[in-house]
Amino acid sequence: MTALNSKIFVAGNRGMVGSAIVRQLETSGHTNIITRTRTELDLTNQQAVLEFFQTEKIDQVYLAAAKVGGIVANNTYPADFIYENLMIQCNIIHSAHLANIQQLLFLGSSCIYPKLAEQPMKESALLTGTLEETNEPYAIAKIAGIKLCESYNRQYGRDYRSVMPTNLYGAHDNFHPENSHVIPALLRRFHEAKLNNDKEVIAWGSGKPMREFLYVDDMAAASVHVMNLDKVTYDENTDPMLSHINVGTGVDCTIRELVETVAKVVGFKGQIKFDKTKPDGAPRKLMDVGRLKSLGWQYSVVLEDGLRLAYQWFVDNQNEFRS
Prior knowledge:
13 strands, 3-stranded mixed beta sheet, 6-stranded parallel beta sheet, alpha/beta, Rossmann fold
């Protein structure tokens, strides 16, 4: 168990996942959490990151910083997604090693798995098939992050771990009308439709694909849990597949079911139509979370309850989302 006065750096603390990890650590009694804004520390600047680690004498790192977005953003800015994520990961992981930091947790994404991977997706499915085209650059960057952690563990004996979350949502999500993920995009769209007394809302795709969603505070709790697993339990030499661990609910729903639940939570009474000319993405993305359960953790927030929490946060902070 990590000492409560250990110096912990949370990279990406202003993002949805990073801010949730900070909340989780604070709730657990940690008193020495180090954060930096983007203007204070450019994580794509190798020299700046190295100097930060050498100066601050960090004990533990949560690597939650990343450039993220939905289907539209991934299709529109593929170069940005692969470049920025590779740079952030390489700089933090390598600099942590050079600064002799032994513990690091890297947060990846379920998109690392092949588009047509057997469902539910096990950790062993990594690199067994072709990726989903719409977010391939982002996925390749995340796979590189896993392999960076594995490689520093193998060559230098580091304890760098990786967790692969399913689709996340919650407080501090990105509610941009074009560049956000499906849940924040739907919450905003239905909210504005309700305010405008619109008679219908158009959702992208056929509604048939199935997706799994995890409330971000559950993800934060899982991250801290995995970081604190005993080294012997986690040792990749004992079990190679523990080089990364799936984090999710193990439960999925159709996009149609999600859309209808969002409409219910928001209180939209109009019609819902699906634009089948828009891309669906992968037909199904469900995580096999058996490994994480065997290590003593499972989710606690069911989807409708989480959507209500996320919607309330959006309503309370909507002045930030006028664009």
